[in-house]
Records
---
Amino acid sequence: MRGNFTTPTFRTFAALVTGLIAQTGRCTVTGMLTGAGLTRAWSHDRAHAFFSRAPWSPDILGISLSHLVVRRLLPAGAVLTVVVDDTLFKRRGKKVFGAAWQHDGAATGPTPVGRGTCFVVIGLVVELPFVARPVCLPVMARLWRPKQELGKVDIAASMLRLLAAWRRRQGPAATGPLMPMPTRPRCSPAVPRAPRSTATARSRQSVKPALKRLARRYRHLSEEIADADADLRVLIARTAPGLLTLPGVGTETAGQLLVTARDNPDRLVSEASFARLCATASVPASSGRTDRRPHGLTIYRSFRVTLRSP
C-alpha cells in the first residue's frame, strides 16, 4: 500500500492505523494519536490534514486493500463474495458534514430514524481459521447524503464497477503480487511529449503577442485618462479655481463635488446637507457600548492628506 501515498503521508497513515488498532476508547482522529502514543510528539493538525488535504484516494486505497485480502485470506480459485451495506454513524452538531436525519436500521422503537452520517460500505466475505463463521471485511466506503443525485444503490454500483474493473485488470494473477496502481493520470505513450525547450519556445511565441496587445491598450487608455483629466481641470479652474488648491482635493474629487452640487441646488441648504448629498457625512455605526461614526471615503482621503501636508 505504500505506493498509494507519498512518503510523509504514508508515515502518518501507518501511525493512524497503529493508533486505531491500539485505541481502546473512542476511535477519533485525536484518539488514534493517543493510541499510537504520539500526542506529545505530533500536532493534531498533522492527523487532521491527512484526511482533509493529503494527496491520496480512498477508492484506490480500498482497491489495494481488497487485493491484499484476496491474496492473503482467500485460496486460489475461491469464489469472491462481495457484500454491500449502508451504515448510519450517529453524529451530533451543526457543523458535521453530511449529517442529517435519515433511516437507521439498527434503531429501536417504532420510528427507525437517527441523525448522523450514512456510509455505503463494500466488504469481502472471508473465512478465518480462528472464527467459526464467515467474516465480512470492509474495503471501500463512500458518504451518502440526502437529496443528492446519486442514491445508495447507485453509489454501491459505482464502487462495484470500479472494483470489478481492477479485478479484471489483475486477471488470473490476482492471488499473486499486486500490480502497481497509478494514483495520478499518465500520458498515453502514443502521444510523444515535446522537449522542454520546444515547449518553452511555443509558450513564449503565444504569450508575446498577447502582452503586446495588452501594453498597447494600457498606453491608449492612459492617454485617454490624461486627456480627460486635463479637460476636467480646465473646467474646474473656470468654475471653482480655489477648490484645487485645497490639500487632498484632486481633479476627480473636485469634479464629483461640483457635479453633485450643480444637479441638486434645491437640496443644498447647509454644509451638513451638502456633506450628506456627496456621501461624505459621517454615518452612525455603533455596536453595543462602542460609539463610532466613520466618515465617507472622499472626506477621509482629504483628511489624511491634510494631516500629512506641512
Note: Strands lie at 81-90, 100-103, 113-126, 135-144.
---
Amino acid sequence: MTRQPPLRQTARQWDALAALLDDIGGRVVACRDTAAALHGFDGYTLRPPFHVLVDRGRRVSRVGHVVHATAALDRVDLCELEGVLATTPTRTIIDLAPSVSSQYLRELLYSATASGDASVGFLHRRLVALRTRGRAGIPRVLEALAGVELDRGTESWLEREFLRLLRAHRLPEPQRQQVLGRRGRSIIRVDCRFAGTQLVVELLGYRFHRTVMQMQVDAERLTRMQLDGFVVVQFTYLDVVERPSAVIATVREALAAQSARDRTARRVLSLHRTA
C-alpha cells in the first residue's frame, strides 16, 4: 500500500480543520477519515466533512462535519501532528475497521506494521483494552491480523507472545506444531508440547466467541488427546494478553505435576524390578 505525504496536504484544508477545532474548543481530536488523511493512509484526503472526537457528555455538533463522542479516549490513543491532536495510527485503524473492506483493512495493517506506525504487540493490547468498551471494529481487526499472519507464513503473535513469556520466566521452551494423532480423518496438530512430558498447551487464537461447530471440533480434539494420555492446558487470547502471570503460574504447576508423576512412575517401576 502506498502512503501519501501526511501533513500540509493543502493549506486551505489544513486551516479549515484548525479553525473547526478552535471553534469547538476543549479537548477535540481529529479521528477516523480525517485522522487517516493526516497519517497518510492510502485513499484518504484531508477535506470536509471533517471527523472529530470529543468526550462523551459534551453536546457538540457542527453543520457539514461529523462529531463523534466517546468515553474511551485514553492518552495512549492520541498523538499531536503539527499542533493538531489526532488519534494514533493504531486507534485510527481500529475506528475505521467497521467501515472499510476486509481487503483494505488487511493492506492497512500490512503497511502500518511494516512501517512501524503501529506495532503488532501494542495493537493487540489496545484491542483488548478497547474491547471492554464496545468497539465495533475489534473482531474485524483481529480477523485481518490473523490473515496477515497467515499470508506472511509466520508464527502468530499469540504464539510468539506465549513463548516470550516462557523465556522471560526461564521456563522450558516447548516443541511447536507437533502431530499427536488423529481425530477421524483429521490430524491432531497442537501448538505446543513440552519435550519428555505429556503436557500440551493449546492457544485458542483470536476468537472472543466460538461457533457451535468450532466448539464441537475443539471438544472432539480435546477428548481424543485426553484418551491418548495427554494433559491439555488451554489458554485464550485474553489469558495471554491480560493475565500473563496466571498463564505462567499454570504452566509451572502443570510442569511440576508432570515431574511428580514421572518420579512416582519411576519409583513404582523400580519396586517392580526389585520385587
Note: Residues 165 and 244 are 7 Å apart (CA to CA).
---
Amino acid sequence: MADVSAAGVHRFETANRLREAMDLLAPTAVTVEQWSLAQGGFPGYCRGCGDWGQFSQSQPAAGDWANLMEGMMCSCGLNGRMRGILMALDDLLLRLGRIPATAAVFERLTPLFPRLLERLPGLTGSEYLGDSLASGSVVQTAWGGIRHESLLAPSFGDASLDLVMHFDVLEHVPDVDQALRECWRILRPGGWMLFSCPFYEELESTIVRARLVDGVLEHVLEPCYHGNPVDGGGALVFSQPGWDLWERVQHAGFGRVGVSLCFDPVQGVLTDACPYPDGHAWPVVFAAQKP
C-alpha cells in the first residue's frame, strides 16, 4: 500500500505498487490534462508562494505536444515539476521532524531555489558551469558569484551533509552510477538524497543517448537537449532513465529507497502528457537514505 503523508504525497517503497498506482491514475490524468490544454490551464494552489490562483498553460506549436510538467505556470514562476519537488521535500521534512542542518542542491539560478532556501536555511546551491572548472570554484557571472559543482566530482567532504538534492540533473551526466556514488560519499550516515529526473514508465531499462569514451563525446542516438539556466544552447541528455534506476540507487549504497508520486491536479502537478509511450513521464521524486 502507498503511504500517504500529511503533505499529500503518495510514497512507494516497491516498484510494483508504484506501477499499479500509475495504471490506476492514467485515465484520470488523461482527462485532466486534455481539459487543461483546452482551457489553457486551470486554477489551483501553489505550494511555493502559498497562493491560490491560475496556472497557465501555453498551447503547443502545430504538430508538437505540450510538456505539462514544465508548464502549468504559477505567477510566482514555479512550474508543475517544481511544485511536485516541493511536495516531496515537505513530505521528507515532515517525516524527519527536523530541518537538516547542512544541505546541498545542484541548482542555483532557478525559481525553485529560493523556495528550497526558505525551507532549508543551511542550503548551499550551485550550478554546473563548465568542464574546465574545479568543483567548489566561485565564478563571477551575470548573476553574481555562482558556485560551480559537478555531480560527478563534488567538492563536499566525505560524510559532510545531511541532505543532498538534485532535480532533473542526473540525465545530463555521462556516468549515472558515479554520480549516485558521489552523493552517497558526501552524505552523513542517516542522511538523505532527494532527486528527480524524467521517469518513463514504459522503459524497463535506461536508454543511453550519449556517452564519453576516453574523454570523447559519442552520440549513440540523435542529440537531445533540455533547458539550461546557464546555457541557452541547453544541456545534452546522456540517458533516459527507466525502472532499473531504482536498483541502481540501491547498488550505489543506499539502503532505503522510496519514490513519491506527486501527481496532484489541485496543485497543478501533472504528467508530461507526452503522447508517445516511451516519452511519457510521471512526476516522481526519489528519496534514498544512507545507512
Note: The first helix runs from residue 15 to 39.
